[in-house]
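Usage example:
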Amino acid sequence: MLALQIIRLLGRRALERIEGLGRATIMWALALWGLPNRTDISLLFQQIYNLGVLSLVIIILSAFSIGAVLALQFYTQLVRFGAQEAVGVGLAMVLLRELGPVVTALLFAGRAGSAITAEIGLMKSTEQLSSMEMMGVDPLRRIVAPRLWAGIISLPLLTAIFNVVAIYGGAIVSIEWLGVDPGGFWSGMTDFVQLWNDIGKGMVKALVFAIIVTWIAVYQGYDTLPTAEGIGLATTRTVVHSSVMILAMDFVLTLTMYGDFN
Amino acid sequence: MRMRIVEISVGGFVLAGVLALLFLAVRVSGIDVQDSATYTLTARFSDVAGLKRRAKVSLAGVTIGRVVDIKVDAAYGEAVVYMELDVDAGELSTDTGAQVLTEGILGARYIGLLQGAEDDVLVDGGEIVDTQGALVLERIIGDLVTRLGS
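Running the assembly step on the lines above writes:
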């Protein structure tokens, strides 16, 4: 009997998950449909400001530290082979292909994703969303859509800024401090970095992560239990789910885009 | 007033993002704005020993092209290497030699060209006939062992 109950519990959980996924997909599709509209453009600007501009400080600070630390580590290993000029290539490849998109998306999930969830969750628990519906304003269009689009626009731009700052951070450490030859540093980079294969595919990753993070954040806020505890749980779930999904998707994307090891 | 600040900072943010992308494209990947003209040559090698696509092709130590494709011709047991060379680098004579070389001890394989003496030059789609495959360490050691044994 106990075994049957466990199986039933498992089935219920699975059904709940699938139902949630269905609700999330419907919400996402309806919300993306909700734009573009002239009057909504100021809402979009406000959200790009909240999600993108306000994330700049944390992105720039982290990028600089990561670039500097990578340069130090590459240098200590490469100098043993007298190949310290390869710091530039290593740095650019690692940042453009993996660390740039992934770290930016993780920071974005912590900084902006959690804020989206908390904001929408509080709107729901204070019944602002239902009052909007009563007034004939579609909350998907007014609240959810601008946040989704703002995230999709902001994260790739943040990733590009992250990459540039990190490469410069690494360049400052290795050229000014460790004494790597600047010519070898930059020309090694330009020799091996390819526009589509390294930069373009990194940007594709950033776009995918943007869709994942904003989707999870908005859905968790929209679907939260309208209590203080519910909002707390939803915010935590946003950060945890986005982080796990980012890392898992990164592996899948790397495998599909760079899987041809020839 | 508040909306103006928001709009200005969003504009600045988008501009910074686009500039960052441009910087990555130009400074980091070093795209040539004017796509330099190239022509394709082929060469057959007995052994390329792990030569990879995008490996460089050099003449007198200067990179003048890249390997674009490597196929195997099972009928002759040879590797066919397709390479793209810059037109700006000048013309190669028909008796140009090609060797698969290694950069440093652990370095990557690349193709080294040796300019020939003929007056005729190789054109697009031409083949380098005088080729020398890579030195494979095991084979050298194997030869050495048999010679020492005899």
